[in-house]
Amino acid sequence: MAAVIPDPLDHHHHHAPSGLMRWLTTTNHKDIGTMYLIFSFVMFLSGGVMALTIRAELFQPGLQVVQPEFFNQLTTMHGLVMVFGAIMPAFVGFANWQIPLMIGASDMAFARMNNWSFWLLPPAAILLLGSFFVPGGATAAGWTLYAPLSVQMGMGMDFAIFAIHIMGLSSIMGAINIVVTILNMRAPGMAMMKMPLFCWTWLITAYLLIAVMPVLAGAVTMILTDRHFGTSFFNAAGGGDPVMYQHIFWFFGHPEVYIMILPAFGIVSQIIPAFARKPLFGYASMVYATASIAILSFVVWAHHMFATGMPAVGQLYFMYATMLIAVPTGVKVFNWVATMWRGSLSFEPPMLWATGFIFVFTIGGFTGLICAIAPIDIQIHDTYYVVAHFHYVLVAGSLFALFAGAYYWLPKWTGHMPSDRLGKLHFWCSLVFFNVTFFPMHFLGLAGMPRRIPDYALQFTDFNALATIGAFGFGLSQLIFLAVVVKCARGGKPAAAKPWDGAEGLEWTVPSPAPYHTFEEAPLVK
Amino acid sequence: MNAARAVRLERQNRKLLLRLCVGALVMFGFGFLLVPFYEKICEVTGLNQLLRPDHIGVFNTQVDASRTVVVQFDANTHDLPWRFEPQMRSLRVHPGELVQVAYEVSNVRGEPVTGQAVPSYGPQLAGQFFRKMECFCFQQQTLEAGERRLMPVVFVVDPALPADVHTVTLSYTFFEVEGRRQTSEAPPPKAGPRQRTS
């Protein structure tokens, strides 16, 4: 992107290598942020192609496009690629670009480690995607890699395990870097409770990452040793228990879903005040709500496992604890709406995405509450209702917030305004097609259509055909975003240092595009 | 940024880096700690006690002759070169009655093989009312090459079994314990496990 090509007037930049070596060796937070964002977009497209293949197969009952074995690989890899390849690296990319700019630091705390965090990702992605081509194909155990299936899979599973190890290491390094940067590198006067909310949500997310990514690494290591080294963690014959895998996995997995949504809350909390031209309503309560969501995320994991035959007492505890999370989440939604209340609103693309986020994410949050009710969950467990629920929070939540953030900060990154017309087209196409895709899945799930199955009973045909049409519309709409970014990087209306009149924060005090080096002299925050 | 501040910051950063790395390592260990923790919880709460004998005296053993339950016996092997089947397919028992049945197992491979049987019940609910006093599933079983053996199961159906349960299926699956198969040489993975595994 044009934003990171060094400014010829930049006197600090003397002996930087050029071409490929520049990108391989760079320690600049803006370069690394850009690489993270490009990487995650590539992964987003490849995960999207898998999703569209799944939807093509489900367009009609019967088997037309792919065989069941390959279908299972696709559902598994779609999940793994989107979670570990697209959403998480995209948020780390935002953190790299924005956190130093927002807190007035010159770079991340450990610039060389930052380079490593990124460059671990492409090999991991190659391992993961390359596993389609090994004998037996990619892992088909579902993205949760449940034992005993994951213990029995072919060598594609080993590729996935190593890919997860590497991506986990990358995430932990990235998270450590973010914690140290935020805690130690803030400009004088930038007190914790003055920090932009995006930094707060990322600080809390980074702590979650440090706490749970190692647990996932442990879980997949146990699968690996069960597979090859004769241990029996999950092997019932050797005294192990496959249900224990689910407990360990979801001890990671539930905080993980907040890892994917808290930075999204942060982005939305930056954008809503900017376009409502009012300060964020209830800043302190937003910080506390984020922290309580993070803490609660450690004590609710077994709500993913209501169908494993847990005792009623356990079901009741996990049900009530899960419903408790609706309280801090409700505080957040309330605060966003209260920020908009009587604001002088304008709906440029970032604000459209952020407002769309509030609408659609809240639907997903609400279906989450329904799934949390144990007796209902027994009915809808592993049906399309669950698929609808988590796509409402991950696509309409995380992804919409990522787009909101991209439109909001593209002027700062590239120095040009993104196309207003294309941005709005992208938003409306995405919103409509997203709902066409995923809303019918609620009905399918309630009617009992199981997830992860390549065929279905005839009565589900109409809703599935509708969902497939929506999915292709949604997938193609994302090419508009690609066009917007390419156009914006190449040229367009020059952006002012502060292109959005209501925007607040240190990142708008530096010129657009942000110079290669910023805040070498720490700014004073009053 | 003046030099003194830069040096101080460098030191602070390294200290925090070290602490966070230790935190990550501790959490990696914690993942493994969950294993004994899980086993302890299961032991304390009495969950998942499939492979331990029940003792007479902890429940009512009065025979309820007014009621008859059909117990069906099922046997499976999971990638094991054994022939494994019950001596009888089903039996009518009264709740509270002490019953002994036997399964016949033979090793058809030309070398000793160790296996572990894991029981499961249908309906699942019946599991907690099915008391096994003696079972070959309480230990791993090693069969010499070509050995054939009769293995007993002694059980009582608890009279507390809900009245609407008329048939209980006891299903065993034998898994091989040693010499696990090489996954890389395994045939391409199927869409699901070939047999129910528990």
From TrEMBL, chain A:
EC number(s)? 7.1.1.9
Domain spans labelled Cytochrome oxidase subunit I profile: 23-526
Q: Origin, by domain of life?
A: Bacteria
The reply on keyword Protein biosynthesis is: no
Span-the-membrane segments of this chain are 36-56, 76-97, 118-147, 159-185, 197-224, 244-268, 280-304, 316-338, 350-376, 388-410, 422-443, 463-486
Q: Which family does it belong to?
A: Belongs to the heme-copper respiratory oxidase family.
Protein name per the record: Cytochrome c oxidase subunit 1
From TrEMBL, chain B:
Q: Which family does it belong to?
A: Belongs to the COX11/CtaG family.
Give the UniProt subcellular location, in the record's own words: Cell inner membrane
Region feature (Disordered): 179-198
GO function term, MF aspect, one: copper ion binding
Keyword Disulfide bond applies: no
**Membrane topology per record:** Single-pass type II membrane protein
- Protein name (Swiss-Prot/TrEMBL): Cytochrome c oxidase assembly protein CtaG
- Name the InterPro entries for this protein: CtaG/Cox11_dom_sf (IPR023471), Cyt_c_oxidase_assmbl_CtaG (IPR007533)
Which GO cellular component term is one of those annotated? plasma membrane
Name the predominant localization.
membrane
Q: Which organism was this protein described from?
A: Azoarcus indigens
Please name the Gene3D superfamilies in this protein's record.
Answer: Ctag/Cox11
Annotated function:
Exerts its effect at some terminal stage of cytochrome c oxidase synthesis, probably by being involved in the insertion of the copper B into subunit I.
Transmembrane segments annotated in the record for this chain: 16-38
SUPFAM superfamilies the UniProt entry points to: Ctag/Cox11
Q: Which UniProt keywords apply?
A: Copper, Membrane, Signal-anchor, Transmembrane, Transmembrane helix
